[in-house]
Each structure stands twice: as structure tokens, then as C-alpha cells.
Amino acid sequence: MRIRGLSGLMLMLLGAAACTGAEIDGAATSATSTPAAEEGALEVLELPVPRLKGNLTLEEALAARRSVREFSDEPLTMQDLSQLLWAAQGLTASWGGRTAPSAGALYPLEVYLVTPEGLYHYLPDGHRLEVLAHDDRRPALARAALGQESVADAPAVVILTAVYARTSQKYGDRAERYVHLEAGHAAQNVLLQAVSLGLGAVPVGAFEDRAVQEALGLPTEHEPLYLIPVGHAAPA
Q: What's the mean pLDDT in 108-119?
């Protein structure tokens, strides 16, 4: 059984037993669906459990990492998305510690995901994905990114945003520096996770902030810092 993207997946998940063995364009998935628990969310998806062992060592991933800007049409699996989002901001400790260090453990970053099927917001607590919209935001996001084709063509774009007030309330003027360092930590995690999954990715910092917020319908306090297009590299 083939289901087109996350939106099709959610419809099938609501079919209870009918969802067994469901696929996203042929890729098996174990995501489940729960009623929307966050304000503004259409639904909340529970992501597959992230794997703690990959195919590459850290050293191999570091050596292999290259910026990839051209992608094939092959979609990402739910397990791929689960790993990428967990790498960005996933929980690694019972007290709430995450994959990337944060000054004062204040965690100002918010992670969004854009695919051809919709717009999503990552919830580290419970490793879940809020469904915010069912339309393709990549064209608008690419325009906000000064027409960069990698943003328009990638099967997924991870967006890192920051709520500076979470950090500035404790660290004042130094908060901006700490937040930007944290965004770099999280972005490198995503880039290395992509390599481990056999995927390509590129960090994008050239964009119009307000245009990104408008393309994604972000709250004004969620300021975009990084766009990371991810996908299978196009054949050379």
C-alpha cells in the first residue's frame, strides 16, 4: 500500500488496524497519531523511536560531510525524519537534557519541518511532531531564501528558530551570542545525522527573516536562524 507523504499517512493512521504496514511512497513507517494537544496544531504525530546506533562512526561522518544542494525525488522515511529532528533537539536525559548543549539549559531553539505535504513543529517532549498545515511551503520558503533552489527542491527542510527571551532573561546582552552558538551545535548535529543516514544536506543562512516568518506563519518571537534542506543527493 502506498500513501503520498505525511498527510496521507495521517489519514491512514486514523483508520486504526488499516494503517498496519502503511508506507510513505514505499517506505515503511511506525508513526502513530494522537489528537492535537497544542494550540494551533491540527494533529500530533508520535515519531518512531530514534536509533542510537548508525551505519557510520562519528569520525566517518565528519570526514564524509559535504554541502549538498541538489536532491533526487526520493522521499524521506518517517525514520529518517525522526532521526534528523532528534539530532537537532531530541531529549537524551530524564531531566530534559537534549542532543545539543544550551546555556543554562534554557533551550531557546524551536525546530520546524517543511515537506511537500505540509508544515510541522517538533516537540522534543515525547518526540512528537505537530501538524500545522497541509500545504507545500517550500516555494514561499525558497523565495524568502533569495531563490535558492535547494530549499525549493529538497524533500524536507529543517528550520531552526530562536526565542531569544528564554535566554536573555538570565544572561542579558550575552544571550544572543549563546543562542547563536546553540543554533550552530544543533545544525551540525543535523548535518552529521544526515551523513549517517546516507543523505545530503546544506546549511542555509541567507534569507529574509520576516519573509521566512510569513512563509511559515511563525509567531513574531520565533526568529529564524537556519534553514537546512535535506534529501537524497541527486546522481552526479
A: 97
CA 133 to chain centre: 15
Annotate the chain with three-state secondary structure.
Answer: CCECHHHHHHHHHCCHHHHCCCEECCEECCCEEECCCCCCCCEEEECCCCCCCCCCCHHHHHHHCCECCCECCCCCCHHHHHHHHHHHHCECCCCCCECCCCHHHCCCEEEEEEECCEEEEEECCCCEEEEEECCCCHHHHHHHCCCCHHHHHCCEEEEEEECCHHHHHHHHHHHHHHHHHHHHHHHHHHHHHHHHCCCEECCECCCCHHHHHHHHCCCCCCEEEEEEEEECECCC
| Nearest C-alpha neighbor of 212 from the set 196, 226, 202 | 226
Q: Which residues contact 72 (CB under 8 A, 6 or more apart)?
A: 231, 232, 233, 234, 235
Mean pLDDT (whole number) for 82-92: 97
Cell of 36: 492535537
Tell me the domains of the chain and their CATH numbers.
51-231 (3.40.109.10)
Angle, CA of 120, 87 and 69, to the nearest 5°: 75
Q: Is 95 exposed, middle or buried (0-12, 13-18, 19+ CB in 10 A)?
A: exposed
In tens, the pLDDT along 146-160 reads: 999 999 999 999 999
Largest Cα separation within the chain, whole Å, is 54
